[in-house]
Amino acid sequence: MTTVSNHLPTAELQALDAAHHMHPFTTNDELKERGARVITSGKGIYLRDSEGNEILDAMAGLWCVNLGYGREELVNVAARQMMELPFYNTFFNTTHTPVIALAAELAKLAPEGLNHVFFAGSGSEANDTNLRMVRVYWAEKGHPQKSHIISRLNGYHGSTVGSGSLGGMTYMHEQGGLPIPGIHHIGQPDWYAEGGDHTPEEFGLARAQELEAKILELGAENVAAFIAEPVQGAGGVIVPPNTYWPEIQRICDKYNVLIIADEVICGFGRTGNWFGSTTMGIKPHIMTIAKGLSSGYVPIGGSIVCDEIAEVINAIEFNHGYTYSGHPVCAAVALENLRIMQDDNILDHVNNVAAPAFKAVLDQLGEHPLVGGVNVSGMMASLPLTPHKASRAKFAMAKGTAGFMCRERCFANNLVMRHVGDRMIISPPLVITPDEIDVFHKRAKLALDDTYKALKEGDMLKAES
Ligand SMILES: *Cc1c(COP(=O)(O)O)cnc(C)c1O
């Protein structure tokens, strides 16, 4: 039996990690050279590493630890549930109280008409469920050919074969034969990077109208659904222009195309409402949930399904499910997470305290010569880096170089801020306080200054021609 404790020297932990652990979305050989940072514990919005650094986690883990680290209530509920019933399946005419309670609570919190939940172990799995469910729905309604799904380039819906195909990450499609047939990608509403001289409003409309063009190209009778994140997360926190979603909604209504809102990041308060669909004025037929559902304490995902689809799916045997669909421990922790969110008025905190302070700080960081703009919705944001502020120019050097340099300098200043290409991404725990947002501000400013200095000294502030 290998015993590994936090008390081993960091180098030893890193060597063992490199020898046996294959990290996701990582060039492991490069990481081996550098050595992975060993995270040993967390409290509130801070992480601690094996060298004793206290790191402000402005990514909430991976967009998920919305209540922060070290919430004893979540821990206690998990322990209690493990004692009482650590596992039982929900396949064979059985159920249990945690899953009953969680489904009912989600139906209560979800927008009107979304009253049914199919559980999964993750966001990826839930989107695989959605892919099959919308196709089965149309087939049962007598339209088996209505099976194509439209999605967006640079959207993120997970990493399984199905969800990776729904996603529009071309670097993922390049590996392993994705996307599977029947999935089509249109352009994203990224005005900052792609809007050129158009106003955001014009650009938002134009990008939404790509959906109409694609539906007409495929034939509306062949299109089952459109899937999108209300605000793109992993693609770089891209807040669509305000003309975008109303036009998407109009098009989907007109051609009888279902809307799947992927709420894995936007859900549970991230944008200031329970769901990003509410913030963006979307009327979805299915919502994908995961991440913040349990504040990341345990893995759980699911699909919140509208009455109309549930009525059809419930009338047949849907030959689909996961061993851990509605896992009792995960369901109990998720339910407790939702209870805390309500009892502690987390949405009020976000809307009245955290988001205004966050926005004020972002606006100040937006003044930095290296920052080309500010994208923010509630408690998710991005700061795109640029060598030339006025024109939102891209760097002449390889995409992501400046972003990576900035991320490394964040780490050096005890701040986790991720980069997607040359955009810095911020998604802190929702419980963050104004004082903590000030600490974020100081560290982010230092990292931007350090990056700017290094770019200047390296003569790297050149714009793409
Ligand atoms: C993270 C994410 C997923 C995938 O969830 P996993 O739990 O990693 O499988 C799906 N959709 C969106 C929008 C996400 O951000």
Automatic annotation (TrEMBL):
Pfam families: Aminotran_3 (PF00202)
Gene3D superfamilies listed in its UniProt record: Aspartate Aminotransferase, domain 1, Type I PLP-dependent aspartate aminotransferase-like (Major domain)
Molecular-function GO terms, alphabetical: pyridoxal phosphate binding; transaminase activity
Keywords in alphabetical order: Aminotransferase, Pyridoxal phosphate, Transferase
Keyword NADP tagged: no
Co-factor requirement: pyridoxal 5'-phosphate
Similarity comment text for this entry: Belongs to the class-III pyridoxal-phosphate-dependent aminotransferase family.
NCBIfam families listed in its UniProt record: PRK07480.1
PANTHER family membership: AMINOTRANSFERASE (PTHR43094), AMINOTRANSFERASE CLASS-III (PTHR43094:SF1)
Protein name listed in UniProt: Putrescine aminotransferase
Source organism of the structure: Sulfitobacter guttiformis
